[in-house]
Design brief:
This protein has a single domain, classed as Aldolase class I (TIM Barrel, Alpha-Beta Barrel). The radius of gyration is 18 Å and the shape is globular. Strand 3, helix 3 and strand 4 form a beta-alpha-beta unit. The chain has an eight-stranded mixed sheet. It contains eight helices and eight strands; from the N terminus they run E-H-E-H-E-H-E-H-E-H-H-E-E-H-E-H. Helix 1 runs parallel beside helix 2. It is of the alpha/beta class. Bound molecules: iron/sulfur cluster (2 copies). The site of one iron/sulfur cluster has 13 residues, from helix 6 and helix 7.
């Protein structure tokens, strides 16, 4: 019998547009990665392709950029309801700056008790936080606030993974570090504009043009020349060895890296 392929975390990125301009943006949206919306029909096509590959998804996540600035987000939430039996829980990640419009609220409520909104709470920047809290209390929607301001920040604050460059780790050191990387351990795959990656850094470092695409580092969801089984094999291998991006990425050292205050903003005209 065919071995089941389960996605523990499947993050869909419909947009790299964002309402904030964080100096240490983990998605490199502070310059190197272009801010843009992916057309709704392309995002839906990629989601179809993912569900054709996976037998089950534990957490189906929507992340940005900022998802609530994506105009078609309500329609996207409506669209994925067709896979409701194929994933365990819907997770929406937001920076708490923009509260969804009526369509967005209705699309969230249609998931009943099966949706969690995770707000990265950047204090004053997260202007819509109180509205999210009220919405959650009034409608019984699961809401998690991750405190990223003042003392005792979530994960003690952010790390600095900016200006990635070849860290020149010897091959065996790289392999061990990449294997133990917290991102690899949590198996948080990222789907952006037709490509499925093992993690967000693999996704956005390729997007910024740090290195040429390499076969097997990601699944090209729109490539009809590869069979379903070939694509599933690439996914099964995702966490078995370091990828090109791991050579450039300091996230492997996350547990010991210095921490910085979250969400420090760049000047308006920098990006
Ligand atoms: S909120 Fe900040 S860190 Fe998050 S995507 Fe936007 S700019 Fe990047
Ligand atoms: S080292 Fe970076 S690129 Fe490699 S798995 Fe970890 S987060 Fe992803």
């Amino acid at each position: 019998m065919e071995e089941k392929l389960v996605a523990r975390r499947l993050a869909i990125v419909p947009t790299t547009n964002c309402s904030l301009k964080c100096r240490l943006c983990c998605d490199f949206l502070n310059g190197p990665v272009k801010r843009r919306d992916i057309p709704l029909e392309d995002v839906c096509r990629d989601i179809d392709a993912c569900f054709a590959l996976f037998d089950r998804v534990e957490w189906l996540q929507f992340v940005g950029g900022e998802v609530f600035v994506y105009r078609d987000f309500p329609r996207l939430l409506d669209y994925v309801r067709k896979y409701r039996e194929r994933f365990d829980r819907l997770i929406i990640e937001t920076n708490g700056t923009v509260f969804p419009n009526e369509d967005g609220q209705a699309a969230i409520l249609a998931y009943g008790g099966d949706v969690t909104i995770m707000v990265s709470d950047y204090g004053k920047l997260s202007r819509a936080r109180e509205r999210f809290i009220a919405f959650s209390e009034q409608n019984g929607v699961d809401l998690r606030l991750k405190k990223y301001y003042g003392e005792d920040q979530y994960y003690d604050g952010w790390i600095d993974n900016n200006n990635p460059h070849d860290l020149k780790e010897p091959g065996d050191v790289l392999e061990v570090n990449a294997k133990n990387c917290p991102q690899a351990l949590c198996r948080n795959m990222h789907c952006f504009n037709g490509k499925l990656h093992r993690c967000s850094n693999s996704c956005f470092m390729l997007e910024m043009g740090l290195f040429p695409p390499k076969d097997g580092d990601f699944v090209d969801l729109r490539d009809a020349s590869k069979s379903r089984e070939e694509k599933r094999e690439i996914i099964r291998e995702f966490y078995t060895r370091a990828r090109r991006s791991c050579r450039y990425c300091r996230f492997k050292y996350e547990p010991i890296l210095p921490r910085h205050p979250a969400a420090e903003q760049l000047q308006e005209d920098v990006i």
